[in-house]
Specification:
It is built from 26 helices and 25 strands. By secondary structure, the chain is an alpha/beta fold. The relative contact order is 0.05.
């Protein structure tokens, strides 16, 4: 009866009621009862034969699959160790084998239900029955599910095979967790320590740092070895690397906060991590990651995997590695490269400012000094350096400046393309020129980011420089033994320095003032440079309106939205962001405005907050004190929400630095 109940399902109730009716009729009318009994028997026989036929067809399909698997008899399919089930199109179970019941703990007496109920999953079953294979997790086990369609009359049934991959998954996970990565760890500013402390103290400091690194690495089961002064090599498994990431590479904070005799040592670490298929490739990636970490200012970890970078840390100010000897050698190399070229095309970044155009003017002066035809490629429609351009054109031919479209006609096989104030092709005024150029030179001070221009003849990168104009002023000073730049060039370079340092307030070092002093000796005037920053009354009022609209977030961040359109919107928002830093307690400012297709964010700080890191989290970039990003296909309200969430994340990760 149990078997009959399973096969007939609820139909048995109908037949039971009919049988009772036949018996009841017998007491009233025997002849009628006989007729009903015959009809009942006929219907019961028809139902039984139909059910048997359906079951035989289903078993035939199952046995067909079993025969294809080379079983001696179809019944073996039922005892197959692979869990199998037949379901309807809506997921209702029709039949399961013993292995399926055992795998998913289904009792023999338990009625069959939906496959989704058994698997404890929600949603549709289309992915299960599409035949391409599907990986699922059920009852703490992993399965690969494959299906084949079974046609029974007009019904669509599907035979599912559940292959247990739990052990395979564990083996796979153990394999990836045990994959080795190479870490190169370098003390950023070891030379500066010798200038601050006695030599005996330095030995003690570096010994403590090395012990701290070795102890930190050992706590994760990593192998650490010192291979030169201030450099260590670490082999670490993937499982340990993930723990380091989860704990935000605490060694960075340990070394940064290290002190000696009550005085902070002022030491930071840069770590490059290479994750590749072979140790040789991992070592090469680790070197590139370390170079990226140091190019971004140090005090951070860069992980490189399959040409992609991830960064952790980078919350402190960069360390200065430049020296005049290196600058002199680079200047001579740049002069040699220019001499070996037929002509020079110079460009800055999109929406060029005084630093980008001023640096371009400086490189134009160097190329002209070596008697090379030079042109500055610039989009006059989008530039923010209008006053400086007008000053330049008052003393130089108008065809010195060319549009990105016209620049293609000036590009030859031996043309040198100089990119100033950016190191990313897509951020330049003419990316197509860079793609076609045979020789490209990059001069930039922004922290290095992913997507930098590769295959260059010269990549002069100094993230601790205040501006590109500072770097180019030094090149002008050492490119030749005799001074050659005129007062217009000097004025352009000085204006770029003043813009990026906000009139010598932020990111200024000894080299900044030395470069400014050199430009002053070439007749540059700070007063004339300051006049270039003058705005009309309309810009002044709108800038103040943006400032009035600002709100304080998390006690130290100022956020404002420019809810109007203006041709000078970029200038207005950047100036407003600068001014908002003058409010007491504000450590970083952000101004948003909406443009066609995206929302732009301008970010500023005095250095205690690394706005570059915050903007990179949103897909942008820049410098520690000046950065920006563009959020595509989003509203201003959504952009503000995402910005606040990113600020919260940054604060949580850098509490010890900014508290």
């Amino acid at each position: 009866m149990k078997k009959l109940w399973k096969e007939f399902d609820t139909s048995i109730i109908t037949f039971a009621v009919a049988l009772l009716c036949v018996i009841a009729t017998f007491f009233f009318n025997v002849a009628l009862a006989v007729v009903e009994g015959v009809l009942f028997a006929a219907l019961f026989l028809i139902k039984w034969l139909y059910q048997k036929r359906v079951r035989q067809k289903l078993l035939y399909q199952i046995r067909t699959v079993a025969d294809e698997l080379d079983f001696e008899r179809g019944d073996a399919f039922k005892q197959l160790t692979v869990a199998c089930a037949v379901i309807e199109k809506d997921g209702q179970l029709v039949w399961v084998n013993d292995s399926f019941r055992e795998t998913f703990s289904i009792d023999e007496n338990t009625p069959l239900c939906s496959i989704l109920t058994v698997l404890k999953r929600e949603g549709s079953i289309e992915r299960l029955i599409d035949g391409r294979g599907y990986r699922i997790k059920a009852d703490q086990k992993y399965f690969a599910v494959y299906s084949s369609e079974v046609a029974v009359d007009s019904d669509e049934l599907y035979l599912l095979y559940f292959f247990d991959e739990t052990k395979l998954r564990k083996t796979e996970k153990d394999y990836y967790d045990s994959r080795p990565s190479i870490m190169l760890c370098v003390i950023d500013n070891a030379n500066e320590v010798y200038q601050i402390f006695k030599e005996s103290d330095c030995a003690s400091i570096f010994s403590r740092i090395e012990q701290a690194i070795d102890s930190w690495a050992s706590s994760y089961g990593a192998l650490c070895r010192k291979y030169s002064n201030s450099r260590m090599l670490i082999f670490v498994e993937e499982r340990s690397l993930q723990k380091m990431i989860a704990e935000k590479f605490s060694i960075l904070d340990t070394v940064r906060n290290m002190s000696h005799d009550g005085k902070n040592c002022g030491v930071t670490l840069s770590i490059g991590v290479g994750k590749e298929q072979t140790l040789i490739a991992a070592n090469d990636s680790a070197k590139q990651a370390l170079d990226m970490a140091q190019s971004r200012g140090g005090d951070q970890v860069a992980i490189r995997h399959e040409a992609q970078y991830k960064f952790y840390g980078g919350v402190s100010a960069g360390f200065e590695k430049r020296n005049k000897v290196r600058t002199r050698l680079i200047s001579k190399s740049i002069a040699s490269i220019i001499n070996d070229s037929d002509n020079v095309l110079i460009m800055g970044h999109r929406f060029s400012d005084f630093d980008a155009f001023g640096g371009s003017v400086g490189m134009f002066a160097i190329a002209s000094h070596f008697q090379k035809k030079a042109n500055i490629v610039i989009d006059r429609k989008t530039t923010l350096a209008g006053p400086l351009i007008e000053t330049f054109l008052a003393h130089f031919p108008a065809d010195t400046l060319v549009s990105p479209e016209k620049a293609h006609s000036l590009l030859g096989e031996n043309t040198l393309v100089v990119v100033v104030d950016t190191h990313k092709k897509d951020f330049s005024d003419a990316p197509s020129i860079i793609e076609k150029a045979g020789k490209v030179m990059v001069i930039d001070h922004h922290r290095k980011s992913v997507g930098f221009i590769e295959d260059t003849v010269m990549f002069y990168h100094a993230p601790t420089a205040s501006s590109a104009c500072e770097m180019i002023a030094e090149i002008c000073e050492y490119a030749d033994t005799s001074p050659f730049i005129d007062n217009i060039t000097a004025q352009a370079l000085l204006s770029g320095i003043m813009l990026d340092t906000r009139n010598f307030i932020i990111r200024t070092g000894v080299r900044t003032f030395e470069a400014a002093a050199y430009l002053r000796s070439r007749a540059a005037s700070t007063i004339d440079a300051k006049k270039l920053f003058s705005n009309d009354m309309g810009v002044f009022h709108k800038r103040n309106a943006v400032i009035d609209n600002s709100q304080v977030y998390n006690k130290m961040f100022a956020i404002s939205v420019a809810d109007f359109k203006d041709k000078n919107i970029r200038l207005i928002t950047s100036q407003a962001a600068d001014e908002m830093l003058n409010v007491e307690g504000i450590k970083a400012s952000f101004v948003l405005y909406e443009a066609p297709g995206f929302v732009n964010i301008s970010a500023r700080s005095y250095g205690e907050i690394n706005v570059q890191v915050i903007m990179e989290m949103l897909g942008g970039g820049g410098h520690q004190t000046m950065a920006a990003c563009q959020l595509e296909n989003t509203s201003v309200d959504e952009a503000v929400r995402r910005l606040k969430n990113t600020i919260d994340k940054y604060v949580n990760e850098t509490t010890e630095v900014i508290k």
